[in-house]
Design goal:
This protein is mainly α and 163 residues long. It has 6 helices and no strands. Helix 3 packs antiparallel against helix 4 and helix 3 runs antiparallel to helix 5. The radius of gyration is 27 Å and the shape is flat.
């Protein structure tokens, strides 16, 4: 009697645990892809918030009016849309680069060829960045341009937009 009871108890616990395992497997995607996509979206959101914060600080520092702020947002959005397709290409570059660097023996020639293959993409991204910066500078007044130049001279990225 006691032996039958223990077998029955063990089998019911096993059945419940297997049922809950299968139920959770159907509700959640398997593998690392789910976790990586969650982390990637969190990283993207954090990056966007950081960029918004930097824009607000810069806009306050330069005393941008509402019209200038709106124009800057439009310029940024256009640049973002233009570089979106190129970013996909860069993902491919980074994956291939990662494969090359993880090999036991580093193949310099293969890496140089990979760099050469994506050189046009790098140039296009640099061009978009330069055009965006130029468009932004065009909407500034002369005093704002001078203020921006003096900020760059004081330390660039590490200097804070404050007085």
């Amino acid at each position: 009697m006691r032996n039958k009871l223990s077998v029955l108890l063990i089998s019911s616990v096993l059945a419940i645990s297997l049922t809950s395992t299968f139920a959770s497997a159907y509700t959640k995607p398997l593998g690392h892809d789910h976790k990586q996509s969650k982390d990637a979206s969190k990283h993207t959101q954090k990056f966007e918030r950081s960029m918004q914060h930097k824009f607000k600080k810069m806009a306050r520092y330069l005393n941008l009016n509402d019209e200038q702020r709106q124009q800057a947002k439009v310029i940024h959005q256009e640049a973002k849309n233009n570089s979106l397709a190129l970013k996909e290409s860069l993902k491919s570059f980074h994956q291939q680069s990662k494969v090359l660097t993880m090999e036991d023996t580093f193949n310099e020639q293969a890496f140089i060829e990979l760099q050469r293959e994506y050189q046009e993409t790098f140039a296009e991204l640099a061009l978009i960045k330069a055009k965006t910066k130029n468009s932004f500078i065009k909407i500034l007044t002369e005093e704002q341009r001078e203020k921006m130049k003096s900020h760059k001279r004081r330390g660039g990225k590490r200097a804070h937009f404050s007085e």
